[in-house]
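Progress against Task 2.4 (sequence-to-structure conversion) is shown through the following example record, which the project officer requested during the mid-term review.
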Amino acid sequence: MTSSRQVLTTDPAAVLVGTLGSVARPDVALAEPVCLALVAEGATHGWAVAGLLAPDGEVGRIWGLSRPLTYRALDQLVVAGLVQRAGREPGRGRARTVLAATARGRRQNRRWLDRPVAHLRDVRTELLVKLELRRRAGLDPTPLLDAQQVAFAPLVERLTGADAAPGDLAALWRQESASAVVRFLARARIDAAVGP
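Structure tokens generated for the chain above:
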């Protein structure tokens, strides 16, 4: 039985990124694409992916996922045919199942990493994690930053084009958030041009 906050499925077509339906929890919505991107970096196992997504992990410092949800996402990716079990390797205790992205999984991962986020609120989570995953994969962040700037341009213009009415704190918040995103994208673009 699933709660009203989670959508679980074994239908491979429904597991594809962006087709999970209405999901209230961001960890569930991003779990599969983030786990797929980490597996697509090279053959690995669930323990290693979970470590990267732990709060003190390389990716978890930006966007984290609990160990049980990591394993659930990896299982769903296997069911969807985006990841395959590619053998076993010894580990402390039980042997670990090695996971590798399938050709379809690698294509799906690249499309997801190239796609701008839909909402300004997703910059803090989805865009930042995509930029980190692109960095880890050796991909230039510039195409995503440029696409994101283009995608947000009409919304930013609408939000920042007129002053918020006095006392309209929600409108003021939206304007300031939009302005901050514009500054972030510009700075990230400059940082990308300069390099590490």
